[in-house]
Amino acid sequence: MSATVLLILVAALMACIISGLSLYPVRRFARQLGLLDRPGGHSSHTIPTPLGGGIGIYLGITLTVLCGLAAAWLLQSLGQQEDGLAEFQAKWAGWIPSRWFDLAAFHAPGVWSRAGDILWLLAGGTILLVLGLWDDRYGLSVTLRLGCQFAIAAAVVFGLGIELTAYMNVGWLTKGLSIFWIVAVINSFNMLDNMDALSGGIAAIIAASMAGVMMTTPDPGTDHPQLLVAALLLVVCGSLLGFLFHNRPPASIFMGDGGSYLVGFLIAVATLMATFVGGPTSDGSLRPHAVLAPLCAMAVPLYDMTTVLWIRIREGRSPFLGDNSHLSHRLVALGLSRPRAVATVHLITATCGLSALLLTHVSMLQALTVLGIVACMLLLVAILESTHWKDPKS
Fold first, then answer.
1. I want to staple 108 with a disulfide (CB 3.0 to 4.6 A). Which of 34, 75, 247, 372 is the partner?
2. What count of other Cβ atoms lies within 10 Å of the Cβ of residue 161?
3. What is the dihedral of CA 178, 263, 66, 25, to 10 degrees?
């Protein structure tokens, strides 16, 4: 198991390197591509900043996944030939450790069996990336953006059969909730992209925490962890870390709508692909509460989106027009510096992610405690936000 985790971490490192390196030319040619966020409006930066961070994130994820699928195809093809694997291993013995080769060959058929689903997901992510880049460049209507997002979400749910179960046998309800979940997560990350390292850091934390859940939650009826979903999430996390190297304050490039659409889509779909109830607890009870793990992990983005929409509607403004009413902005209004506000949101997200990891391994009574901790933390944030900061010297 430890060797498998190490192999997945190598893939995540590969995604990180590809993403980080590819963003140098993106930064250089952003002006020519028209991907430049200029100061003004509700933006808080003071100099024009490139918007194409999603391109690097996309390349890190896509190239890593395609390399993995190519390796899986090659190894499973060689496995069907007499002495094919032995000859290939002998040829590359000086370059590929035998333990890693055997491990990759063992998992290759399982990975290749899901290649179709993975390629279709990459296709959906590509469409969303292009949609977001076009929006960054020219601007799109809310109707068109949401229409495309709902269409792609519906294609994933109805076409690939990836959907929420949650112990409900009402097909139309679970499909509708699954589509709504994908669109909601996409837009929650898009709305969070308002400060340096904020959205990318939150997404990386959530992807890592959900990967931890997958690593420790086996498929029903087996003792095997959900390695494919965990690998996808860690590759997303690795690519985000490569982007964050450029997005750390002061940011050299922003994620943009293309990046937030892509990241939100892949994280949302990964949570639907996963199984959260891997078997009974030590006392023999089932764990239906484990299906709430994604909600725990996503608590901060969903809280931010919900409160922002509520504030805009309450004040009679359009819920789709950007402003400075986000959680991070509200923390700054309390007196925190922007870096400290971002760090605070990251810490809250990490706490919720750890709660999600714990939720999948405890009994119902213990789960209520975990959910109570998450609820209390969000309530504490809400109370702090309702307090107007005052200068103690005044």
1. 75
2. 9
3. 160
Listed in sequence order, the residues at least 6 apart from 255 whose beta carbon sits closer than 8 Å to its beta carbon are 53, 54, 57, 193, 199, 200, 243, 247, 263
**Sequence-ordered list of residues with C-beta below 8 angstroms from that of 346, at least 6 positions apart, any chain:** 201, 202, 205
Assess whether pLDDT exceeds 80 at residue 83. Answer: no
Q: What's the rounded Cα separation, in Å, for the pair 68 and 14?
A: 11
| Strand 36-37, strand 49-50: pairing | antiparallel
Q: What is the pLDDT of residue 76?
A: 85
Q: Tell me whether residue 220 is exposed, middle or buried, using C-beta atoms within 10 angstroms of its C-beta: 0 to 12, 13 to 18, 19 or more.
A: exposed
CA distance 132 to 258: 4
Choice among 64-68, 256-260, 363-367 with the minimum mean pLDDT = 363-367
DSSP 121: H
Q: What's the CA gap between 255 and 207, in Å, rounded? A: 16
- Extract the tokens encoding 133: 């880049």
Q: Which amino acid is at 129?
A: L
The DSSP line for 149-188 is HHHHHHIIIIIH-----TT---HHHHHHHHHHHHHHHHHH
Ranges 203-212, 238-247, 283-292, 305-314: which has the least confidence: 283-292
8 Å CB contact between 382 and 337: no
Give the per-residue pLDDT at 271: 93
Contact 204, 240 (CB under 8 A): yes
Question: Which of 34-48, 231-245, 269-283, 370-384 ranks highest by mean pLDDT?
Answer: 231-245
Given a cut of 60, is residue 280 above it in pLDDT?
A: no
**Which carries the bigger pLDDT value, residue 51 or residue 2?**
51
Q: In sequence order, what are the residues at sequence separation of 6 or more whose Cβ sits closer than 8 angstroms to the Cβ of residue 200?
A: 53, 240, 243, 244, 247, 255, 259, 263
d(CA 224, CA 216): 9
Residue 49 DSSP SS3? strand
22-35 burial code (b ≥16 CB/10 A, e <16): bbeebbeebeeeeb
What distances in angstroms separate CA 74 from CA 70, 77, 88, 101, one per listed residue? 6, 5, 10, 12
Q: Could you tell me how many residues make up the chain?
A: 394
pLDDT at 147: 97
